Amino acid sequence: MRTMPRRCAKGVSDSDIRENYTPFGFSDWQTEVSAIRAFASSGKKTAVISTINGDANVPFYKELANEGIKASDIPSIGYSMGEEELAGIDTKNLVGHLAGWAYFQSVNTPENNAFIEKWHAYTKDPKRVTNDPMESEYILFHMWAHAVEQAGTADVDAVRQAMIGQSFKAPSGFTEVMQPNHHLTKPVMVGEIQANGQFEIVYQSKTVLQPEPWSEYLEEDKGKVANWSYPWVCGNCTSAKFADF
Fold first, then answer.
1. Average pLDDT over residues 79-95
2. What pLDDT does 115 receive?
3. Which long-range contacts (CB under 8 A, 24 or more apart) does 209-212 make?
4. How far is Cα 33 from Cα 153, in angstroms, rounded to an integer?
5. Fold assignment, 103-185
6. Burial of 31 (0-12, 13-18, 19+ CB in 10 A)
7. Dihedral Cα 198, 201, 207, 209, nearest 10 deg
8. Domains in the chain: boundaries
9. pLDDT tens-place string over residues 119-155
10. What is the average pLDDT score of the chain?
């Protein structure tokens, strides 16, 4: 675990930012949450941006509740905290904390209603939840099947090409399209945790956004491309180098 100060163009000083990294399998969330509370004790407005992954979200959010850290005092937004993780938590003390995804089970569309119905029929459990990663796999499987039909073969190279341009009306209600970089166009949604373990969508983009595999803010990413239209350009190479398959 380490702390890395970062400067911000908005006039926020290094001392106003605390950035911690924890290893996979980390378990001492009581210490981490106590550190968050201590950091906020200076009286300045404080928020938490969490990139904690998967199951580790459960003990982290449980500890937020145990410490009585309410969203009205220290709001948090997570980028890997979804319905499946909330299913193992009493969310009554977590109401108001946020998550950022491209899909939530609470999306009210005919496509999502059908998606949830199929999932419950498969699991034979009406309480099982859906989530963003599930929706993505659902979309991609349908696109792959369409690509195989279009290519007339399951050959990897042929299907790779046929995947580009595939579109599908997603449970989110948006039509998502596979780009030449093999990333999907996606909407952006922010959900607020509710007492019933679901999310109320408090923000939703009006359209899908174009994917950007490489960050314009990282020096080591500049000049890199990801383009799988023939001839293929390797995602890890500069634009001047082509992959050899």
1. 92
2. 98
3. 209/185, 210/179, 210/185, 211/179, 211/181, 211/183, 211/184, 211/185, 211/186
4. 52
5. Rossmann fold (3.40.50)
6. exposed
7. -70
8. 1-100+187-205, 103-185, 220-245
9. 999 999 999 999 999 999 999 999 999 999 999 999 9
10. 88
Structure-token pair, residue 148: 């195989």
Q: How many residues does the structure list for the chain?
A: 245
The pLDDT score that the predictor gives to residue 239 is 41
**What are the C-alpha distances in Å from 82 to residues 45, 55, 144?**
25, 10, 25
Between 41-50, 73-82, 163-172, 180-189, the lowest mean confidence (pLDDT) is in: 41-50
Residue identified by tokens 């407005």 is 45
CATH architecture assignment, domain 1-100+187-205: 3-Layer(aba) Sandwich (3.40)
Q: Is the overall model pTM greater than 0.90, yes or no?
A: no
Cα–Cα distance for residue pair 221/226, rounded to 1 Å: 11
